[in-house]
Design brief:
Elements (H helix, E strand, L loop, with lengths): L7 E7 L7 H12 L3 E7 L5 H10 L4 E4 L13 E2 L1 H6 L4 E5 L2 E5 L2 H11 L8 E5 L3 H12 L4 E6 L2 H15 L4 E5 L12 E5 L17 H4 L2 E6 L8 H8 L3 E3 L2 H16 L5 H20 L1
Parallel strand pairs: 1-2, 1-3, 4-6, 7-8, 7-10, 8-9, 10-11, 11-12
Antiparallel strand pairs: 3-5, 5-6
Bound molecules: NADP nicotinamide-adenine-dinucleotide phosphate.
NADP nicotinamide-adenine-dinucleotide phosphate binds next to helix 5 and helix 9.
Length: 293
């Protein structure tokens, strides 16, 4: 990478940040597409968030990604947010404008592009979402917009799934989300198969080897299982989906595409699919090496 007086700077803010794979994704993309930019990780303390945003703007930073725990806290520090980010109530990408940083949420378009790339179509499908946290809520919004016919949201805390169901009904005018307790999967119509999206942190490193549901009866309802977790690359949820004859995917492509969409917003370029695939191979290799350490 050539760094000189004209290099544009982008980065990611979060806490912790050492585990991030975003620098590898963006610096590889910049190199491949020929954009003169460098992407860095920035560890930010909670009380320093406002200074960090002001400082980055003053330093002519072109764009930032925002990760845990700042995706909602950063909202009041921005000059505006796009409609999707406002609906989701969280941003993960800041783009420099004349008035300040403007916020986007590329996580959900990222999941959608990842699913398209894996050949999963959503229109008219029945989907199960496991979880009712921030990611599950955003996934439900995305699915409602992409024309799925029904979403069953299963969560340990039923009230959270109920709140999301009402919110989505308010936003779309459709009663598309059916809230359920985890064990209520037993009430699913017997022969019906679903796309299941695993949106809890159960099974995530370092608590590997467990799944949010472990009963085979549940997995018999799963045709495609999509885990948002990508560390580890093979979760217990994915194993259980495969053992019951379903296809299983991890969340690494979602991570890749949320990054690609952010990169496109900052640079005004369109990342060709061959370069997206090459970048995916690099990130997958990195993850596999990390897992062996
Ligand atoms: P969150 O808001 O904290 O929500 C956590 C969810 O997990 C809640 O539904 C919670 O249930 C459930 N849960 C946690 N521990 C549980 C347990 N022991 N038993 C049953 N349910 C449990 O988290 P989030 O931000 O939505 O993130 C969820 C997952 O999505 C994380 O693994 C994250 O890494 C992943 N994610 C991946 C990407 C990507 O690019 N691939 C992007 C965003 C998020 P209760 O409501 O009952 O507490």
């Amino acid at each position: 990478m050539r760094i000189d007086g004209t290099t544009k700077v982008c980065g990611v803010i979060g806490n912790p940040i050492a585990h991030t794979m975003s620098p590898q994704i963006h610096n590889f993309l910049a190199e491949k597409i020929g954009i003169h930019m460098a992407y860095l990780p920035f560890l930010v303390e909670k009380e320093g968030l406002s200074d960090a945003i002001k400082g980055a703007y003053a330093l002519d930073v072109l764009g930032l990604n925002v990760t845990i725990p700042f995706k909602s806290d950063v909202l009041p520090l921005l000059c505006g947010v796009d409609d999707l980010a406002a609906q989701i109530g969280a941003v993960n990408t800041l783009v420099r404008k004349d008035e300040g940083f403007y916020g986007y949420n590329t996580d959900m378009p990222g999941l959608y592009r990842a699913m398209c790339s894996d050949g999963i179509s959503l229109e008219g499908e029945k989907v199960l979402i496991l979880g009712a946290g921030g990611a599950a809520r955003a996934v439900a919004m995305m699915l409602a917009q992409k024309g799925v016919s029904e979403i069953r949201m299963l969560n340990r805390t039923l009230e959270k799934a109920q709140a999301i169901a009402s919110e989505i009904e308010g936003a779309t005018g459709k009663k598309i989300v059916i809230p359920m307790e985890l064990g209520a999967y037993r009430e699913l119509p017997e022969d019906e198969k679903f796309i299941a999206i695993q949106a809890t942190n159960v099974g995530m490193h370092p608590n590997e080897g467990v799944a949010i549901l472990s009963e085979k009866d549940f997995y018999d309802h799963v045709r495609v299982g999509y885990d948002l977790v990508y560390n580890p690359l093979e979760t217990r949820f994915m194993q259980l989906v495969r053992e019951s004859g379903g296809k299983a995917y991890h969340g690494l492509k979602m991570l890749l595409y949320q990054g690609i969409i952010a990169f496109e917003l900052w640079t005004g370029t369109q990342v060709p699919e061959e370069i997206a695939n090459e970048t995916y191979a690099v990130v997958l290799d990195l993850m596999q090496k990390k897992e062996k350490q």
